[in-house]
Amino acid sequence: MINRRDFLKASSAAAVAGLAASVVSMEAQAHTLGKLFKGASGGRLYESVDGGQRWQESANFGPECQIVRLYMVGKILHAELAFRGYSFTLTSADGRKWYSRG
Fold first, then answer.
1. How far apart, in whole angstroms, are the C-alpha atoms of residue 1 and residue 92?
2. Amino acid 12: pLDDT
């Protein structure tokens, strides 16, 4: 038999885990450089030159990284990544070669 306190702790942990799973499943996207970019699970970035009909992997940031956001500043593509509770941003002029800011 489980007491009320343990039940509440377990149910709140399950709710947080469910929320985290739904956030992780969201895909970051950007349209630029004549291409559509999409972040996928496992830190993979895909590009499409035909409006999303076919996709090709353009970068792999590693299975520990989550692509949180893709956005443009001028002609530079930015990828905001999360890694073990930290976040950082990489930049690219072509979606294939990536550099850290600063």
1. 56
2. 54
